[in-house]
């Protein structure tokens, strides 16, 4: 039955090559912890992706309750935290995931760096990876404001003051992020929400796709 | 790819009518003990993923994500602190060479050089050798950058008293209590307690919320006279009769809020 469904789809849209590209590839001995335990360092990249998936899923569920508006943002988070079934766990996963993803990214970056795995021909993939790191820091910065508690508000205010001190474009940069030259308020919250939920994830997905396509094309770097 | 004459297509589409083999590639001729990712390796990999997930969920359950009181832009006493992975950049701005007139160094030049070098690492470290000892400059630079980041994060976080911070900034649930201003204890509350404990007993940065307290009426009476924690003694200096009215008022509001 399943085979028939598969064949029916495959005849029409030829999915076997796509499936091959995604799933059918080799795992060399030197990256396989089953053969060399020290190869667990090669898990960091995959675990980073795993945490990103956790972040996407938990974030999707959080937006079911979250209201990006200064009157209700904190109340919606408080409600989620105290009243909603498992709300505390879902928010906890998103909160801790944000830290864990930075840790895993750092470990993955260090593994690649100290093994010199970014050398020719993998320069481009390293740069894509560093851009993912920047996007992730941006997600951390914008997500920090969303609960609209004191910690969020004052950290963002400091962040925006730092942006303002950039020569020439500083004030424009602050206005672009905060929605106003002076006030950190309703506009800021909606902008940070949009950046956190639409702009940066879009950039993240594009970069991750490029990262994985390049890995598949080039293969994992050989043993040292 | 198959091309040329004799190609057959499905209908008028561009999908080839010839079906390709669905048998996975044979990796037995590859060097070493190469495995197929699907399904052999994936079956082991999800075990590692599960262990990781269990650890992660334990962390989530053991430490509920923090939430402070609702943002209050007028709270001038609040000391801002970014998330831990931005602490090193925050701490950098406290150095003389990276603040005041030299703030450009702190916010642009130093982080720009560090992250720019990270982005362009393959072109700065472009020799053929991959082993760390074959590229000492790159490795030493990375270790220095890493050490200074850890050091900056540590010095920034070291003097923060996280527990007190969390305690002082606890979220105050919205109260829907109605304050009975005609209660004989209300005037006494207004005069002695309201500045710190708030008009609806909801607390403030200067005083803990009274709603939700676990102290009994007798304890509240003692605290009003003798203080507790950071609350000094003699906040209430009236007669015993007034104290009784005050405690009666406070407990009535607390009961109502429950």
UniProtKB/TrEMBL annotation, chain A:
| Keyword Metal-binding included in the entry's annotation | yes
Cellular component GO terms, alphabetically? Answer: plasma membrane
Q: Which UniProt keywords apply?
A: Cell membrane, Electron transport, Heme, Iron, Membrane, Metal-binding, Transmembrane, Transmembrane helix, Transport
- Top-level division of the source organism's lineage: Bacteria
Cellular compartments annotated: Cell membrane
Which Pfam families would you find in this protein's record? Answer: Cytochrome_B (PF00033)
Where does the record place the Cytochrome b/b6 N-terminal region profile domain? 5-224
A single GO molecular function, which one? Answer: metal ion binding
Query: How does the entry describe its membrane topology?
Result: Multi-pass membrane protein
| GO terms for biological process, alphabetical | respiratory electron transport chain
The UniProt entry, under InterPro entries, shows: Cyt_b/b6_N (IPR005797), Cytb/b6-like_sf (IPR027387), Di-haem_cyt_TM (IPR016174)
The entry describes its oligomerization and partners as:
The main subunits of the menaquinol:cytochrome c complex are a Rieske-type iron-sulfur protein (QcrA), a cytochrome b (QcrB) and a cytochrome c (QcrC).
Protein name stated in the entry: Menaquinol:cytochrome c reductase cytochrome b subunit
**Provenance organism:** Ornithinibacillus caprae
Automatic annotation (TrEMBL), chain B:
MF term (GO), any: heme binding
InterPro entries recorded? Cyt_b/b6_C, Cyt_b/b6_C_sf, Cyt_c-like_dom, Cyt_c-like_dom_sf, Cytb/b6-like_sf, Cytochrome_c550/c551-like
Instruction: Cite a single Pfam family from the UniProt record.
Output: Cytochrome_CBB3
Q: Does Ion transport appear among the keywords?
A: no
Chief location: membrane
Write out the entry's keywords from A to Z. Answer: Electron transport, Heme, Iron, Membrane, Metal-binding, Transmembrane, Transmembrane helix, Transport
Residues in Cytochrome c domain copies:
180-254
> Which positions, given as ranges, span the membrane?
46-63, 102-124, 136-154
How this chain sits in the membrane, per its record, is:
Multi-pass membrane protein
Name assigned to this protein = C-type cytochrome
> Source species, please?
Ornithinibacillus caprae
UniProt lineage: Bacteria, Bacillati, Bacillota, Bacilli, Bacillales
């Amino acid at each position: 039955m399943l085979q028939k469904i598969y064949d029916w789809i495959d005849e029409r849209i030829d999915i076997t090559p796509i499936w091959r590209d995604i799933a059918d590839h080799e795992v060399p001995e030197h990256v396989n912890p089953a053969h060399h335990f020290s190869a667990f360092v090669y898990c960091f990249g995959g675990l980073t992706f795993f945490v990103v998936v956790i972040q996407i899923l938990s974030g999707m569920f959080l937006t079911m309750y979250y209201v990006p508006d200064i009157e209700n943002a904190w109340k919606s988070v408080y409600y989620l935290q105290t009243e909603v079934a498992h709300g505390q766990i879902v928010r906890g996963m998103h909160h801790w995931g944000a830290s864990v993803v930075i840790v895993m990214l750092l470990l993955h970056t260090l593994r690649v760096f100290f093994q010199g795995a970014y050398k020719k021909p993998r320069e481009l993939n390293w740069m894509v990876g560093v851009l993912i790191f920047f996007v992730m820091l941006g997600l951390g910065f914008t997500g920090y404001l969303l609960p609209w508690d004191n910690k969020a508000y004052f950290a963002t205010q400091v962040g925006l003051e730092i942006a303002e001190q950039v020569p020439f474009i500083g004030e424009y940069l602050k206005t672009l992020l905060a929605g106003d030259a002076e006030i950190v308020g309703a506009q800021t919250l909606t902008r940070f929400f949009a950046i956190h939920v639409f702009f940066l994830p879009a950039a993240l997905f594009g970069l991750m796709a490029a990262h994985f396509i390049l890995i598949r094309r080039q293969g994992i770097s050989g043993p040292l | 790819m198959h091309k040329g004459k004799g190609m057959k297509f499905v209908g008028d589409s561009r999908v080839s009518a010839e079906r390709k083999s669905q048998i996975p590639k044979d990796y037995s001729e590859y060097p070493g003990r190469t495995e197929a990712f699907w399904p052999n390796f994936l079956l082991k990999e999800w075990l590692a993923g599960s262990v990781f997930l269990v650890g992660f969920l334990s962390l989530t359950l053991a430490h509920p994500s923090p939430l402070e009181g609702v943002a209050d832009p007028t709270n001038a006493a609040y000391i801002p602190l970014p998330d831990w992975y931005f602490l090193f950049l925050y701490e950098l701005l406290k150095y003389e060479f990276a603040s005041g007139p030299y703030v450009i160094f702190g916010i642009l030049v130093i982080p720009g050089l560090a992250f720019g070098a990270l982005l362009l690492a393959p072109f700065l470290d472009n020799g053929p050798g991959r082993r760390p000892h074959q590229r000492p400059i790159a490795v030493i630079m990375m270790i220095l950058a890493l050490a200074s980041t850890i050091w900056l994060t540590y010095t920034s976080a070291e003097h923060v008293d996280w527990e007190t911070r969390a305690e002082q900034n606890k979220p105050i649930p919205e109260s829907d209590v109605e304050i009975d201003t005609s209660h004989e204890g209300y005037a006494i509350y207004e005069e002695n307690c309201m500045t710190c404990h708030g008009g609806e007993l909801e607390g403030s940065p200067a005083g803990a919320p009274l709603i939700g307290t676990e102290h009994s009426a007798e304890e509240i009476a003692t605290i009003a006279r003798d203080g507790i924690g950071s609350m000094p003694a003699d906040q209430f200096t009236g007669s015993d009769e007034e104290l009784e009215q005050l405690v009666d008022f406070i407990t009535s509001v607390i009961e109502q809020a429950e």
